[in-house]
Task: inverse folding
């Protein structure tokens, strides 16, 4: 659906989205900044002083998952999570948004907490971690906001994602005995 018919259905000028936001993607980016920005900023500040360790990975994953688990408790929050997933999953990132909504800061912190992993392996682990969170909390639901049984326990999601990030390296280097 193009912005024109949506604006007209809302009783607005067909060019209003383009005038105020530049594009539909600009509107979506503005919505995410307004609704999710404070959550992401608060979580980032909460983690700023933690030492590097597996417990930090758990805390970083909790900082990623808990806002979404909270949002899906309301109908508007579920719709926002669904829009976020629909926007981010096909391209692997959100178009035209600040680094606040990209995986890069998370990947850097994970890399620092897990120095035995190469930067490539950190990226290869973080991408499915983000996809899993988006798939888990971004799926559409027609249930009432008070019905949250369709979502897995927040603790389960955090434990699962943290376990994937902290698993032993899948990249093996050849030991001298293997070369013989």
Result:
């Amino acid at each position: 659906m193009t912005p024109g018919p949506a604006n007209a259905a809302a009783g607005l000028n067909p060019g209003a989205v383009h005038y105020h936001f530049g594009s539909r993607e600009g509107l979506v980016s503005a919505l995410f900044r307004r609704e999710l920005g404070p959550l992401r900023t608060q979580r980032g500040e909460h983690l700023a002083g933690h030492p590097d360790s597996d417990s930090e990975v758990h805390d970083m994953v909790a900082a990623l998952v808990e806002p979404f688990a909270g949002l899906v408790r309301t109908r508007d929050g579920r719709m926002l999570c669904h829009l976020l997933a629909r926007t981010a999953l096909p391209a692997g990132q959100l178009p035209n948004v600040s680094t606040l909504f990209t995986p890069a800061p998370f990947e850097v912190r994970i890399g620092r907490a897990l120095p035995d992993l190469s930067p490539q392996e950190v990226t290869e682990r973080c991408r499915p971690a983000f996809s899993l969170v988006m798939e888990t909390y971004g799926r559409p639901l027609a249930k009432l906001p008070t019905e949250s049984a369709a979502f897995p326990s927040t603790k389960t999601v955090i434990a699962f994602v943290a376990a994937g990030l902290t698993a032993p390296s899948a990249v093996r280097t050849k030991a001298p005995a293997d070369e013989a």
About this structure: The CA atoms of residues 21 and 27 lie 5 Å apart. The mean pLDDT is 75. The radius of gyration is 19 Å. The first helix runs from residue 3 to 9.
